[in-house]
Amino acid sequence: MAFTKLISLKDTSKIILIYSRSSIITPFFLGKRIAIYNGNKFVSIIVRPLMVGSKFGEFAITKKLGSRIHKEGRLSKKKK
Prior knowledge:
Elements: E1 4-9, E2 13-18, E3 33-37, E4 42-46, H1 67-79
Parallel strand pairs: 2-3
Antiparallel strand pairs: 1-2, 3-4
């Protein structure tokens, strides 16, 4: 698989690192712990049956959420 790495922690749990957000989730990933790179850090999920057929990027948000963050950005632009 392209753009993936396998990391083993304590020999029992394995995390698959995914760098490609546009890859499609296949039945191979069912029940496995996946870490998706969102451009800043890895977001960890466990693949469920309803996720099969969608893309990895749908489960790793790339932007910060919250009105406070957006208000701070507007205020700093007006002061300049």
